[in-house]
Amino acid sequence: MDEIRGDEIRGKTEGTATVPLSVLDLVTVGQGRTATQALRTSVDIAQLAERRGFHRYWVAEHHSMPGVASSSPAVILAHLAARTERIRLGSGGVMLPNHAPLVIAEQFGTLEAMAPGRIDLGLGRAPGTDGATAAALRRSDRLNEGADDFPQQLAELTRFLDDDFPDGHPYSRIHAVPGPVQATAEGGVQSAARPPIWLLGSSGFSARLAGVLGLPFAFAHHFSAQNTVPALDLYRESFRPSAVLDAPYALIGVSALAADDAREARRQVLSGALSMVRLRTGRPGLVPTPEEAEAYAFSPMEQEFVDSWLVNIVHGTADEVRTGLDDLAKRTGADELMITANAHGGEARLRSYELIADAYGLPTA
To answer: What is the mean predicted confidence (pLDDT) over 295-317?
Structure first.
C-alpha cells in the first residue's frame, strides 16, 4: 500500500488547547429554515473553523431525517473543498454497508484530486438511519449481513484505494479513478496518495478492529457517552503498529455549545434535545425553535430522557465549555476533540464555535 504518514492523521494543537479541536457537522435544518440555508451555514462554519485554527471538519451521513441535511457527505465535502484552502475535510462518517466499496473509492479519490492532502475517509458500520431506510439504500432487507461483512468490505475498499488487488483476483483489472493507477499508467504524473481511513464507532466492534489494523479511531461520545472510556481502552489494548500509525490515535465526537450567557446556551441545547425526543419516538422533524422547546410540556418519560441527554452536552458560557471540554479530554485521554453544535439556527452554531475559539486563544486569522 502507499504509506500514509502519521502526521497526516495526528492533529495540531493551537492556542491553549491541550488537544487539537475539530468540527463535526450534521447540516441541521431548523423550523422556518431551508436546506439551502443550512448548507450555507456549513460553508460559514468551515471557513470560520479554518480561520480560527480548528484542525479538521467532518460531515456525518444520515438519511430520512428532515432536520439533518447531510445525506451525501461526498457532495457536501466537494462543496466545502471549493470554499476552503487548508482545513482537513472528511466524512464522520460514510456508512460503508450502505455503499459499494468501489463507489466510495471513486468518490474519495475524486475529493483527494480536488483537495490534495486534505481529505479524511471516516467509515462506520451502522446504517445512519432506521431499518426501512437502510433497506431502501442497500436494496436488501438483510441488514445484519451488511454489518457483519464490514471487515471484508473494508478490506475491499482499501484494495481499491491502493489499487493493489493481487493477480487472479476478480477485481484485479478494475481501478478506482481518480486513483493510483493514474500514477503508474504510461506518462502518469498523478500522485499515488489517497485519503487516510478512520474507523468510527459507538461500541467495541470498530474500536477493536481499528486497533488490530493500526488505524485511527473516532468514537461517538456525543450519543454513546457511557461506552466512551471502555471503547478507547479496548482500542488502545488492541492496537498494533502499522504503516499508518506507530501508536494509537483516537478522537471523540462531543456535543458542545457555548453562548454569551448560560441561560441562552441552555435554551439552544433544549431545542436539540426536543428534536432527539421526537426522533427517538418515531416523529423526526425539523429542529424546533428554542421558544417551542421552552414551552413544550415534556412527559415524565420524555423529561427523563432530556435530562440524561443534556448531561452529556457541554454547554454554558465559553469558560464553562472550555472547562468541560478540558475535563472530558483528561478523563478519556482522547487525542483530539471533535465538536458538534446542534441548535435551531446557524447563528447560534457560528457564535458557539467563535466563543470556543476565543476561550482557547485560537488564531484570529
So the answer is: 95
Taking residues 68-78, what's their average pLDDT?
96
Decide if pLDDT at 5 tops 60.
Answer: no
Q: Work out the end-to-end distance of the chain between its first and last CA atoms, rounded to an integer number of angstroms.
A: 37
Half-sphere exposure of 204 (CA within 13 A, CB side): 6
121: helix, coil or strand? strand
DSSP lists the bridge partners of residue 198 as: 122
Proportion of the chain in helix, strand, coil states, percent, rounded to 5:
45, 15, 40
As a whole number of angstroms, the distance between CA 213 and CA 235 comes to 10
Element (H, E) at 161: helix 150-162
- Angle between the N-to-C axes of helices 346-359 and 318-332, in degrees from 0 to 180, rounded to the nearest 10: 70
Mean pLDDT along residues 356-360: 98
Contact status, residue 118 vs residue 81, Cβ threshold 8 Å: yes
**The predicted structure's pLDDT at residue 17:** 98
Hey, is 299 helix, strand or coil?
coil
Contacts of 270 (CB under 8 A, 6+ apart): 290, 293, 294, 306, 310
In the block, cell 475491499 appears at 156
Please report which helix (H) or strand (E) contains residue 131, including its range. helix 131-138
pTM given for the model: 0.94
What is the predicted pLDDT for the residue at 70? 95
Instruction: List Cα–Cα distances, 317 to 301, 326, 328, 356, in angstroms.
Output: 29, 14, 16, 9
Q: Among candidates 286, 348, 273, 339, which has minimal Cα distance to 69? A: 286
